[in-house]
Design goal:
single chain, alpha+beta, two-stranded parallel sheet, globular
Length: 80
């Protein structure tokens, strides 16, 4: 998740009430973007928030075929 992706979510979903951004460490929630999230979203989980309450935390991974090599980095740059 990038800041641009988060902005697109916020713009496209004006009635969004819950958003879990835990482990989205690429986000930079400084100034306006962080303020906008905290003002608009009732149930907001931030990147460094604990995952102790995450019910799928201990779920076994069914497929290990995907890897970091499968992720397309910079994809959002291709859209513009």
């Amino acid at each position: 998740m990038t800041n641009e992706g988060l902005k697109a979510i916020l713009e496209g979903c004006p009635n969004l009430e819950s958003l879990d951004l835990r482990y989205c460490f690429n986000l930079r929630l400084f100034e306006d973007l962080g303020k906008l999230c905290s003002e608009r979203i009732k149930d907001l989980k931030l990147p460094h928030d604990s995952i102790d309450d995450y019910k799928f935390r201990d779920t076994e991974i069914i497929s290990d075929e995907a890897s970091d090599d499968d992720y397309v980095y910079g994809f959002s740059d291709c859209l513009g």
